[in-house]
Every structure is written in C-alpha cells, then in structure tokens.
Design a protein that fits this description.
- The chain is an alpha+beta fold.
- It has 21 helices and 59 strands.
- The strands form 15 sheets. The chain has a five-stranded mixed beta sheet, with no helix packed on it. Strands 1-59-58-57 form a four-stranded antiparallel beta sheet, with no helix packed on it.
- Strand 23 and strand 24 form a beta hairpin.
- The radius of gyration is 46 Å and the shape is flat.
C-alpha cells in the first residue's frame, strides 16, 4: 500500500528543506502523471455509476397480513400494498391505484388473490402474479371500508365500514350476500370463524357473532371497558375454537364460541394491549425436547405441564415486552424484552406457522421482526421504514492469497483482496443495523438507550464502533453483532468516531496486530476530541463479558463548538477533525497534538476525508462547497461548487483523482480533482443525502427519504457498450449501402428508419426517385410502358408493412420533414401513402397522433399559402417576356436609322426611316430604352418581392408620365392586343381569368404588318 509509505508527520521540523519549494497542488501533478501513463484505450477515471440494488421500505403503518400459501407478508407502505418475502430474497411486489390509495386489504388462503379497500370507497380485486393486475372494482359501502377479510375457503369476503355495517360478498360474482346492521359505532374489525360460516365483527368495546346461514346475530359479547385492539382464534380441538380479544383496558378475554358465547376467562395484563396471537402448543412440545432448550424458561414450563393448554396467548403493548400467557389459569409463563427500537413499543403480533414455530412482531419503529419458537430468538429482521438514514459504511473483508510472504509492500497488496457483502446502517433510532447487500436482511446491534448518531468500522471490518445521544460508545464484533466493549466519558452526544486506517502488511502483520491495543478516536458535542485505548482484538474476541473503558488516553478541546467529524489518516500518523466553528484541524496521532488548521469555509464543516494517495484532505461544508486542502501549509487547493444546499459527506475514490459528495439537495456528485469539474450527478434520492461510502467499485448511500442504494461503477461497461454500439452502427451502415446497391430499397429504408437516420432515408428516396424517373424517360423514348405505377406500389407496400414502433418513428420523421420547406413535398407524398395504405386503427394507436395531426395541418396550411403565392407570381412571367420582347423591338426599330446597323434582318423598318432624322432618332431611342429598363426593373421587383404588394407611389407616377408621353403608342398597342385576343384559340378559356388576360398581350407584330408597339400597361402588370 503506497499510502503507508509516503505519509509523514506534518510538523515543520520534520519537513525536508527541499520540500519547501514543492508544488502546492501535488494532487493535480499526480493526476496529470497518471493520465499521461494510462494504458492506450483505457480510462482510469470513473464516469458512470448505476444503482445495483435499492431498499425503499415496505411498511409505514396499518394492517399486516401473513399468507402461508404464498409465503409473503402483505404490508401497507405509503398507501400502497407491498408483498414482501420474509427472507428478503424475492423482490417486493407493489399494488397501487392511481389517485386512489389503499386503506386496508386481505389476501385469500390460496395466496393468489387480494381484495383491497380504497379511499374512494371501492373494493378492488387484484390477481397476485409476478406482476399484480386488477380484475374488478365495485362499490361496497356508502362510506370508507375499515377492514376486509376472507373466509377459510376464499369464496367469501367480508367488510366492515365506517357506516356501522358489515357486509359479505361472493368473491367470484362480486355481489353482496349479507348485510349486517346493529353496531353503535364503526365496525373496525371483521373475521370469519375458522371452521364455520360465521362472521365476527368488532365495534369499539362490543363483539358480535353473526351466522351466515340464518343471517342472524348469534351473540353479543360485552366485557371490555375500552376499545378492542386485536382479536384471534385459538383452536381447542377439531372444529372447536375459542376467541381471544385484547383491549386497551389492559385486559385479555377468552370467549367460548359455543351456544351463548360465554366468557371463559379474563386475564389482567397490566398494559395497553395492541396485539394478541394464539400459538398452538402441539408443535412446540416436540421442539422443547431438544437439549439446547431444556433450560429455557418457556420450555421448562411447557414440559412441566401434565396437561398443557391447546394454545398459548402472546400479548404485546406499550411496556416493550412480549409476554406468553396460559389460557387455562391466566398466568404469565414467559417474558421477553422487545428487540424493536423507539423504546421497544410493539404494535402487533402475528403467528405465521400452523405449528406455532414462527411469529412476526411489528414495532413502533415501523420494522418487522421474525421470531423462532420455542426459544423466542430473533430469526430475521425486515426493515419496514428507516426514517432518516444518517450513516452507512461497508464492512470490508480481507482475503489473503497464498504465497504472500514477501516483504515488498506492493506485492503484498496484490495478494490482498478486499470485498464487502454487508454494511452498517444507522437510522434515526437507538439500534444500528448490519445489513446484507443482497436481500437487505438485517441484524440489530442492541445496547444503546438513545438515538445513535455516529459510527465507524475498523479497517479490516471486524469491529464496529457506535456512539449516540446517550453519551456512550460501544464497540461491537461484526461477525456476531455482540457488544464487546463500552466506553464512557463524554458529557455530550458522541457525534464522530474513527478507527486507525492503516492496513496490515501481509498476513504476518495482521497476526501481529491481534495482540496490540485497539485505538479509537471520538468527537463529541462537548467540543472535545478523545483517543481511547481498548483491549487487543484477541482479548475482545475471547472475553465472555463486555469490557469497559472509563477513561480516555488523550482528551483535548478540539473546537470552540461541536465536533462534527473525525478521521484518521491512512498512515495512522495524523488525524483530522471538523467542527461547527467552520474549521478543519489537523492533529498528530496518537498523542493528539495540534499541527495546524484549515480556514476558509463560511459555515460548519460536516465531513473530512483523507486522500488515499497524497497529502491532501477534502472537506464538506454547510456553505454549499467542498474544498481540497494541502497538508503541507494547510491552504486551499481548490473549491468545488455545484450543490444547491449544504454538502454533507465526501469520500475519495480508490484512484485518488476523484471524490464523491452528497448534499442536502439530495444529489450525489462525482468530481474531477484536476479540473474541479463535476463529472456526473446522480439524483436517485429525494431527501437529504446524509451519507455515502465507497469501497472499490461499489458505493452505498442513504438519505432522509428512507432509501438505501447500492451503486456499482459501470464506467467500463458503458465504454464497452458505446464501442459495441458504434461497431454495430458501422456494420448497419455498410449493410444499408449494400442493400441500396442490390436494389432492395425497402429493406434499406427500414434499416435506416430503425437507426433513426432521416437524412439517409431522404438520400435513399431521392436517389431511388431519380433512378425511377430516368428509367421512365428512357422507356417513354423507346415507346415502352412507364414504371411509375410499380414505384408507387413499392412505397405503398413498404409503408403498410411497417411495425408499430417503426410506424411511430416514421410519423415523427414526417412531422419533422413537413416543417421544412424543402422536405415538405416528400413528407406530404408519404402522408398521402400512409393515409391510403395503413389502417385507421393502426394510425390511431400511434402515441400522440392527435397532436401530430394538429402540427401537420398547421404546416400544411402554410405550405398551401406559399404555393398559392408562387402560383400568382408565375403569372407575371408572361409580362416579363412581353416587357423584354418590346424592349428589343424598340431597339430593333432604331437599328434601321442612319448610323445604326440592323442586327436582326427579321424586323424590317420601312416607314420609320422616312419619319426621323438622325438627331430625333437618337433622342427617341434613348427615351424608349429608359422606359423599357424601368418597366423591366419594376417587373423584377414584383418577382423578387411580395407578389401581392402594390407598386411604390413613385413607380405609379412614372407609369403615369410614361403613359402621357406615349399615349398614341399605348393606344395602338392596346388595340393590337385586343384584336390579337379575338383571334386566340378557345384553349385560353381554361386558364385562370387573370392569366388568360395577361397571356393575350403577346409581343407579335400587329395584323396590319406594322412594327410592334409597346403596350401602355405592360410595365404596371
């Protein structure tokens, strides 16, 4: 381990002289060096983390039901029904209804169906498969249903409601068979008799037994003085059962269910009873014969009874005790302390085995504990709801490979494998948990009397230290979850703990450390930092009793306010503390001398962490920043900003070039030390992310949302996935080209559509259409039949053969094309094909089709308006040709004058040569040319501008002047135009009126054979 070699005490006296001029940012230099020597194609920096497993809880209060057939526990979690395996190996199944929370429920004896009552007053039938599905919903009562239960056959379901009635429904037909009235208040509990068609209902202090055959009330049982909290049936023999009821009047009553349902026995329990359970003793008698249980108090009593009762009664309540009662004489035969947190208060107890070998207790801490009987030992722990999770930390496990006997540290480290399959979790209670990474099964560390707020794990994962508001520190053996040592001495809550972090050098070093004292650093709200010397690991392991340490080896006033965090460096030579006074202080270890302090944060510092490879530390503060500090001069190297709230935790990655932070904004951020950039942000949590811990390529996180997440570094997997995707894309690109060359256009289009490449689709279609048109023209020249019809049929066939996912993608592409002026014609062509070939039902199944149609129509209107405008502008082309032609005609008119050559012998000038002399001809020619240029300019302005816009006022004035100066010519031209129009063919009648009118102004010579005249209105259009 290189981290054990480069560290040295940071006192100025021992710093070498040549180190005074060393670069401050040593971490940056290290990162640059690592990047420069990274293997080709490799990446030493982490980029992506994904959640490997998560635990969100399964119980927040309400009813809990055990289904022996399905081997699941049904619990209510935030108004959802969760089905949880008691061994934690199967995933939790959830049953919920949008905007209609579940209030109570029941599971049928087969474990295949559930009936849930909702806030809307509806009952819903759910089929419990791998994915629960709703089968039917119906209205049961006028008001909310308070309880639901099935009979022994599963054919009937009973409900009790706030409307003071109880009803029985045929579960197969969903119709009501019985309706029972008579209770004075809410019917809070309904239960079917285990062997008869009878229904028990509970309302406040009253119990009633109803017969389904006669639809009559068989008995009314009144003996409790306050509300009844729980009832159960105890089997006596055959079909004979007794009823057990427990109330908050501190009394448990046993009732006969024969004849008049008389009271058999009343047992005072001297506590408010929250739950009762009847456990049969037949199966327990055989188990009590084992040698290991012969000295157990309950086993002794059961074996000593000459005539044991057919069942025993278990009660739980507010005294934090599980007690066993004999229904024969009403005596308490055994008492067991509660393993639950929140002062151990119970909420309920259930028997989960017909033989009576297992029970489940539900505590006020919202957690479920499975017990094994008759030893009454905790068999499993199910975390129902953890409230705020304030600390998580992996329990590392060392594995030394054979042959690791060399003295070279680097080779020794290669022989060490560090893994973790468990972690410590601290919630807002007095019992820390040791949780399995697979399944999230938990074991409790019971010993603290108040809320635990701090924890640390030894470097080898064998020891766990916890501290809490009871001002004590406890050290636990991780393998057995047994408290081996208790430390006392702080006068405030123990807020921070840290074991030494130096790893042993090989198996010999690990063996040598077994006989050395175990050290521990603690920080407290009493502003002190203490260093404790504990017995050696060998002594702690072999001790049968809990050791006690009453005095610390070193005690110093660390900060002017509360100490928030302490941590020991990887070389065990220095330690760092963070306080509420905004400071980070560095101490020598283990003598506790102050070496320096780091100033710069503007609010309390919540966490500090040492780099695993360099002499720098990272700190997390309430000012929303994380800072990197140089341990040579205690100056700030960099500040990392990105969280919108306080930064609560920081932890370095194994490469030392990156670190993680978690904040009050619920975000976990990955930072690059060299650039101070945030490489990734993870938003898995919705509450304050109080804690994170990293070991190798795994991370565990906890937050105020009661969620535990186990993460894994997936950088290499994502890089490989990207590489594979790029290779696959290249292969598909090549395949598209080959398909096009082979003429398999439809397959090429489908593949391009699958790859979401609309540009390539457009190129394929354009090339295909161009080729098809060329072939058509060639066949037209040869006199063959056109293949246009075949091309359209191919496109229709391709469009109609698209799968739903491809059709949805293609519609999206067409919507995008339709918004582009250049691609709109192709989009409209395919839209027409889709509407003609694809069935309406298939089009309507496309997600968001209504919105897509609205967008298509809006753009189609724009395209139509633009097309109409272009059509109007095309009418002006006749005018352009006419204007240009008249301009050349005027020029030709003067070509025959003296001094001009006639470039066009087709336009003879006879009469004009005799009427004009040379000077007059030049002036007239110049004026005519100006008018022709002006007319052409105005025409081009119309073409290049808005076709519907009116001409400028100045243009209108010039038109008027031109008309006045050339009235005769205009009149003659107009006459020629009218006369010429009278001789046009009747085909002009099919043109639009305006186009037909403008088309008649042809620049041909007049019928009289004279020279062509320029029309008066040619320039105005």
């Amino acid at each position: 381990d290189e981290s054990t070699d480069y560290w040295f005490p940071l006192s100025p006296a021992v710093i070498p002289d040549d180190a005074a001029g060393a670069a401050v940012d040593s971490t940056v230099a290290m990162a640059t060096h690592a990047d420069a020597h990274s293997p080709p194609g490799g990446n030493t920096l982490s980029e992506a983390w994904s959640v490997e497993a998560r635990h969100e809880g399964c119980y927040t209060g309400g009813k809990v039901v055990w289904s022996e057939a399905a081997c699941v526990l049904g619990c209510l979690y935030e108004e959802e029904l969760h089905l949880v395996s008691p061994i934690g190996r199967e995933p939790t199944r959830r049953i919920k209804q949008e905007a209609d929370p579940v209030l109570t429920f029941a599971i049928d004896p087969s474990g295949q169906n559930a009936c849930a009552s909702h806030r809307s007053g509806l009952l819903r039938h759910f089929r419990l498969g791998d994915v629960p599905t709703m089968a039917r919903a119906w209205k049961a009562h006028d008001q909310v249903v308070a309880d639901v239960c099935f009979d022994a056959s599963g054919g009937f379901v009973a409900t009790g409601s706030v409307d003071r009635t109880a009803k029985v429904f045929d579960f197969a037909g969903y119709f009501c068979t019985h309706s029972f009235r008579g209770h004075p208040t809410i019917v809070s509990i309904v239960r079917f008799h285990p062997a008869r068609l009878q229904l028990l209902t509970v309302s406040d202090t009253e119990l009633r037994l109803w017969d389904l055959k006669s639809s009559q009330c068989v008995a009314v049982m009144k003996d409790h003085l306050t509300s009844i909290a729980s009832v159960c049936f105890g089997k006596v023999k055959g079909n004979v059962h007794q009823l057990v009821s427990g109330g908050r009047d501190q009394v448990v009553n046993v009732w006969h269910l024969e004849e008049k349902c008389a009271l058999a026995r009343s047992i005072p329990v001297f506590e408010k009873v929250e739950g009762v359970a009847a456990v049969p003793t037949a199966g327990l008698l055989h188990a009590c014969a084992e040698a290991a249980l012969q000295k157990h108090a309950f086993a002794k009593w059961l074996r000593s009874e000459t005539k044991p009762p057919p069942f025993v009664i278990l009660t739980v309540g507010d005294k934090a005790q599980l007690r066993v009662w004999s229904p024969s004489d009403g005596k308490c035969v055994a008492t067991f302390d509660s393993p639950h947190a929140s002062k151990g208060v119970f909420r309920s107890v259930l028997c989960t085995s017909k033989e009576g070998r297992e029970i489940v207790t539900i505590g006020d801490d919202m957690n479920l504990i499975l017990w094994s009987l008759p030893e009454f030992a905790v068999a499993n722990y199910i975390m129902g709801h953890n409230e705020e999770i304030v600390h998580v930390q992996f329990l590392p496990r060392f594995q030394w490979r054979k042959g690791a006997n060399t003295s070279m540290a680097d080779i020794q480290e290669e022989c060490l494998s560090v893994t973790a399959d468990r972690f410590v979790c601290i919630a807002n209670d007095e019992h820390p948990r040791v949780v399995n990474c697979s399944g999230f099964g938990a074991s409790l560390l019971r010993g603290h009397t108040d809320i635990v707020i701090s924890c640390d794990v030894s470097v080898d994962g064998r020891w766990i230290a916890t501290g809490g508001k009871d001002q004590s520190i406890r050290v636990w053996e991780a393998s057995s979850c047994r408290c081996v040592c208790a430390l006392s001495g702080h006068t405030g809550s123990v807020s921070a703990l840290s074991f030494p972090k130096k790893r042993p050098k090989g198996p010999k070093g690990a063996a040598a450390s077994e006989t050395q004292p175990l050290l521990l650093v603690s920080g407290s709200e009493d502003k002190t930092l203490k260093i404790w010397e504990l017995p050696s690991p060998k002594q702690l392991t072999g001790a049968s009793e809990e050791a006690s340490v009453l005095k610390a080896k070193v005690a110093v006033i660390a900060h002017t306010k509360e100490v928030n965090d302490v941590v020991v460096a990887p070389n065990n030579k220095v330690a760092a503390s963070a306080g509420q006074d905004k400071l980070v202080r560095i101490w020598s270890f283990p003598d506790g001398q102050l070496l320096g302090e780091c100033k710069g944060h503007r609010r309390a510092v919540w966490c500090v962490a040492f780099s695993p490879i360099d002499q720098v530390i990272a700190s997390a503060s309430g000012d929303g920043t994380a800072r990197l500090w140089n341990l040579r001069d205690y100056s700030t190297i960099r500040a990392f900003q990105g969280h919108t709230g306080a930064v609560l935790r920081t932890c370095f990655l194994g490469n030392g070039m990156q670190f993680m932070t978690s904040g009050a904004d619920g975000l976990i951020k990955l930072w690059q030390i060299r650039t101070a950039d945030c490489a990734a942000t993870f938003d898995e949590h919705t509450g304050k992310a109080w804690c994170i811990d990293i070991l190798g390529d795994r991370m565990v996180s906890g937050a105020a949302d009661s969620k535990l997440c186990i993460w894994r570094d997936t950088t290499s997997e994502q890089a490989k996935q990207r590489h594979d995707e790029q290779a696959e894309l290249k292969i598909k690109d090549t395949k598209i080209g080959l398909l096009v060359q082979e003429g398999r256009i439809e397959e090429a289009l489908t593949l391009a559509l699958e790859l979401d490449r609309p540009g390539q689709m457009r190129q394929i279609l354009t090339a295909f259409m161009t080729t098809s048109m060329s072939r058509r023209l060639d066949k037209d020249e040869e006199g063959g039949e056109s293949s246009e019809k075949d091309a359209i049929v191919d496109l229709c066939r391709w469009s109609g053969s698209l799968e739903s996912k491809h059709l949805e993608k293609f519609v999206g592409i067409l919507e995008e094309w339709n918004s582009n002026r250049r691609m709109a014609p192709m989009a409209q062509m395919f839209l027409s094909i889709l509407l003609q070939t694809v069935p309406t039902e298939k089009l309507m199944a496309v997600e968001g089709m209504n919105a897509t149609c609205d967008g298509l129509l809006s753009y189609l209107v724009r395209h139509q308006v633009r097309a109409d405008s272009l059509l109007q502008k095309t009418f002006v082309f006749d005018l352009v040709l006419q204007s240009s032609g008249m301009g050349f005609a005027v020029m030709d008119e003067f070509d025959g004058a003296p001094g001009f050559a006639s470039p066009s012998p087709q336009l003879p000038l006879a009469e004009s040569d005799a009427k004009h002399d040379s000077n007059g001809a030049a002036k007239a020619r110049e004026a005519t040319m100006l008018r022709a240029e002006s007319a052409l300019k105005r025409t081009m302005d119309v073409l290049l501008g808005d076709g519907d816009a009116e001409a400028d006022p100045g243009d209108r004035g010039s038109n008027d002047s031109d008309s006045q100066s050339d009235g005769a010519v205009g009149a003659d031209a107009g006459a020629c135009a009218v006369d010429d129009g009278s001789d046009e063919d009747s085909d002009d009648d099919d043109r639009p009126p305006e186009r037909a009118r403008r088309g008649r102004h042809a620049p041909n010579a007049s019928p009289t054979g004279g020279a062509r005249k320029r029309p008066r209105n040619a320039s105005s259009g």
